[in-house]
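Our preliminary data section would be incomplete without showing what the modeling component actually yields. Below, a chain of 72 amino acids is followed by its predicted structure, encoded as tokens that our downstream tools consume directly.
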Amino acid sequence: MRENEIAKEVVDAAFRVHTKLGPGLLESVYGVVLAYELEKRGFSVICQKSVSVKYDDLVFDVGFRIVNGLKD
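Predicted structure:
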């Protein structure tokens, strides 16, 4: 798939999740359901992936977390 096709699927999945669940839920709920919706569409999804931060030649594993990401 090309980038535009992937982007279309992700946006469509997010719209479907929001339409079915509506507003007002915790971000974690939307994240889990979005991952499920993307997996139904054939994507491999990584949730809560930790990203290290490098500072002054040190690497800290307490950086931020990517909530949902597609596997390569």
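Residues 3-70 form one domain. The mean pLDDT is 88. Preliminary results of this kind motivate Aim 1 of the renewal.
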